[in-house]
Amino acid sequence: MLLSTSLFRSLTSVRGLALLKPSPSTKTCRFSSLAIDMSTFYDERFFDHGRDHQETKRSNATPQIPIQTTATPVPPTVPDVEDLHIQALQQQQTSYVDPTTGFTVFTELLHLKRGTCCGNQCRHCPYGFENVPQKVKNSMLNSSVPLPVAKCRSGDKARTQELVRAIQDGNFDLFLNSSIANLSDGNNATTNPNSTSSKTVKAAIIMATTPTTTTTSKNVPYTRKGDTGTSQLGTGERRPKCDCNFEALGTVDELCSIVGVAHASLSPKQYEYGPLPERLLDVMSRLFDLGSHVAKPRIQQVASNDNDDSDGSVTFKPNGIGDGFDADHIDDLESWINEMTEELPELTSFILPTGAIGAAQLHVARTVCRRAERRLVPLVVDEATCDPNALRYLNRLSDFFFVAARWVNFCEGHEEIEYRRETAETKQRERVHRSLN
C-alpha cells in the first residue's frame, strides 16, 4: 500500500506516525510494522484522486503487510432515565436515582399523591408546570424545551386520586388519555408527542407491569432504595447507612421515640405533673428539628477577608427545617430544670434510675441522649457541618431528663433510692430509700 509524500504530510496529525517510513526510490511511504486503528484513515480527504495521488502500477507496488487493528473501547451504557422512571412506576415507587447525577428524582406517582404542582420544574410533573412562573416557561419554550404533558390540574383531588389508582392497577391506558386541553396560560405542552411525560406514558403501555399482591392509594414507608445499604440525606446525596451523619440521625430518632414512651407512661388523670407532659411533647418536636438539621450537613466556609469577624465556620440560620438550631431552646431547658429543681429535695448522692415507670423511661432517655451527643461531636468539632447549638441542646437535654425523672417520682409519691455510704467508715456504699415529699 503506497502513500504519496503529500498524503504522508497530511497524516502528521494522526497517531502512529512512527510506523510510517519514507521510501527514497519511489518518494512514497509504505507501512512497515503497523498496529493502528485504520478507521482513522478512512476519511474522504485522504482519498482525493488529485495530482498528489498518482497511482502506481500494481507490478511495482510495495508488498502490503497485514495490518493489525485494535478494537476501540466501547463506553459504558448509561441507563435512560425514562426507562428508570417507567420501571419505578411499574413497581409503584415514588422516586428513582438518576445514574448521571446520583440524585433522587420523584416520579409522577409522588406528584399525584401530593395533589398540587410545587412550581419547582420537576422532571415528571403531571400538572404541566402549572405553578411554574410564566417567565421560566416562556424561556423553556423559546429554547425548544418541551414542557411536560398536563394530565390534570393542580389541586384537582378527585382526578389525581383517579390517576394514582390507575398506576397502582396497571391501567396505563387511562394515563394515555389523561391530557387536558390547555392550562390557563396557554403554554401547556399536552399535544407535544416528544414531551417527557408523553414518552413515559407510551412506553409504560408497551412494557408489561408487575402488580403487587396489594395496593394502596396512600403513601407507604418503603421505597426499596435502601436495600443496598445506602440512604439519602436531605441534600439529595446518598451515603452508606453507616456514615456518621446517619449514626447521629438514627440515634436522635431513637431518642425521640424513647421520649414518646416516657410521655405515654405518665398518668395525667391520676397525678398532677404540671407542665411536664407538654414539655416532653416540645422536646420531641425539637428532636425532629435537630434531626432535620443533621440530615442537611453544611459545607464549611472560609472568611472572605481579614476584617471579617467570622472564624471560618458556617453561619447557621435556624428556620425549623434543618438550616440551623435555635439557641433559645437551650434557654428553655435550663429554665425548666431550674423550676423543677426548686421544688425537689437537695440532691446529695447518686440515685438508682428507678421508681415510677415514667421516671425509669426518662432515665433511659437520659442515657440515649448522651449517646446522641457523642454521635454529634464529630459533625460539630471535626467536620463543622452541624450547628454547635444542636450539640449544646443535647448536652442540656440529658440534664433535663435526669431532673424530670426525679420530678415524676416526686409527683407520683415514689421514694428515691440513693446509693451512698452512711458514714466515712463504711467500706461499701449502700442503698438508702428517701421520700421526696
Summarize the helices and strands and which ones pair or pack.
Layout: E1 2-4, H1 5-10, E2 20-23, E3 28-31, H2 81-90, E4 95-97, E5 104-106, H3 108-114, H4 134-142, H5 157-168, H6 172-176, H7 196-206, E6 230-232, E7 238-240, H8 244-265, H9 276-294, H10 328-343, E8 350-351, H11 357-382, H12 388-412, E9 416-420, E10 430-434
Antiparallel strand pairs: 1-3, 2-3, 4-5, 6-7, 8-9, 9-10
Written account of the structure:
The chain has helices spanning 5-10, 81-90, 108-114, 134-142, 157-168, 172-176, 196-206, 244-265, 276-294, 328-343, 357-382, 388-412; strands spanning 2-4, 20-23, 28-31, 95-97, 104-106, 230-232, 238-240, 350-351, 416-420, 430-434. The termini are far apart. The model is unreliable at 1-59, 182-212 and 302-306 (pLDDT under 50). The chain has three domains: 2-60, no CATH class; 81-222, no CATH class; 238-300 and 311-434, Hypothetical Protein Ta1238, Chain: A (Up-down Bundle). The protein has a three-stranded antiparallel sheet. The radius of gyration is 36 Å and the shape is elongated. It has twelve helices and ten strands. Helix 8 runs antiparallel to helix 9, helix 8 (244-265) runs antiparallel to helix 11 and helix 11 (357-382) packs antiparallel against helix 12. Strand 6 (230-232) and strand 7 (238-240) form a beta hairpin. 38% of the residues lie in helices and 8% in strands. With 437 residues, it is mainly α. Residues 222-408 form the Cobalamin adenosyltransferase-like domain. Keywords: ATP-binding, Nucleotide-binding, Transferase. It catalyses: cob(I)alamin-[corrinoid adenosyltransferase] + ATP = apo-[corrinoid adenosyltransferase] + adenosylcob(III)alamin + triphosphate. InterPro entries: CblAdoTrfase-like (IPR016030), DUF5522 (IPR040807), PduO-typ (IPR029499). Residues 214-237 are annotated as: Disordered.
